[in-house]
């Protein structure tokens, strides 16, 4: 229990005076502010809010507003404090020192006499807040040991414990509120954290996409380089030359057939043209006869019409002369009147023209100045344009020179290939002519012998014929057998290569699946660990390089597949595929060696 002197009428009066002072001050400030702002509603709200805030700050604490533990005494505890019981020696040793006991008693001031009934009534008990209790403890210098003893005493007091638990529950519940300042701060911090996490996820997605695009670009570059190397290889160039040879042969045969067809068409066209010329000549003669008769009839009709028109014209002309003379007299009179009016108007116009001329001279001087500035600006622009045109012309000239050099190089290579093919064809033709010439000589010798000894040579000739026929039959059989064997070997070779290509395709599919899985793992690693980005890129480049090396090793198989496809296409088009088959056989022999 607190003494009556600790919170008496004087203290209450001071608190009331302080509240009244704050209320009066806030009212004066609000009135002045409202008078300056000239807004009555705003002034009223400001005065009301300020007054309410100051009043709440000056009011004594209320237990329902502040749930801190309160210090008050039960009547039983007050009676015990009025008449303290003697303690045992063991209990006295366990208690706190004298100073601590004295400090505790300062918190609950006891009455000095038992006769005062005012301090025995609970209605006169005073309530203090935890903050006030803490301030009193700090004032009397209460130590941590004393605070520990006080907490030990609090555990022995059910009311204090219950109040403390309620306070903790209220604090825990207040942490879940979102309509308070602390709750709004927590909510803003959580939203900010989520926003940063979302931005980080977006950045990681963008990084993953950029890495994927870069990887695709590198792969496309490697594939293009491999394709260029494949196209520039010697075997592909040789095979393309054979393809060109086949195309030349087919084109030559087509040109021969086309030339024959054109000759036939030319003959037909000449015959038709001659017939058309004859018909046109006959029609032209008939048309000239009809036109001559028509012109004679028209000339007669025109002469008759001209005579009638001449008579009508003379009559009309005489009437127009008379009307013109009458109209001229009227115009002469009107001209005299208009001349007078025109002179007066001309005088006024001259005055206005003189005035306008002066103004025009001023405007012309201003326009000349503007034109001079425009001319200077245009001259500068033309100089810049001329300089840009010269620079561009120089670049175009350099580009044309470079293109011309490249074209000349390609043309030289092409001419060399054409010369080599022509030389090879000439050699083949010379061998054929020598063989034919030899056969002709043999035939002449046989004829000469037949002439000398007809009967004997007839018999020998018949024997030679039979032997030749037999040799031709054997040669044809051998040729057919050899062709069948070659076709069988070629089919077997192509079947083996097809099997190898199927196997290679399966291996490529396996490699593609492995590369896809590897790429997926790399993406996951990039999302999870961005710091290992460079290492993963190097690893990916290494995998792509290995794949490229495997593709280069499979180049031979792809070449055979390509050759087989071209041979089939040329055969379907009816072209001669013997050079291509020979080239493919030579390449197989080189590979086996």
Automatic annotation (TrEMBL):
Chain segments annotated as transmembrane: 20-37, 44-65
GO BP: any one term: signal peptide processing
Coiled-coil annotated spans: 181-228, 336-405
UniProt keyword terms in alphabetical order: Coiled coil, Endoplasmic reticulum, Membrane, Transmembrane, Transmembrane helix
Biased composition regions of type Basic and acidic residues, renumbered to the chain: 76-94, 472-487
UniProt domain Trichohyalin-plectin-homology: residue ranges: 229-579
Keyword Aminoacyl-tRNA synthetase: no
Disordered: annotated span: 76-100, 425-451, 466-487
Subcellular location: Endoplasmic reticulum membrane
GO cellular component: signal peptidase complex
Membrane topology designation: Multi-pass membrane protein
Coarse class of the protein's main subcellular location: endoplasmic reticulum
Annotated family: Belongs to the SPCS1 family.
Protein name listed in UniProt: SPCS1 protein
Higher taxonomy: Eukaryota, Sar, Alveolata, Dinophyceae, Suessiales
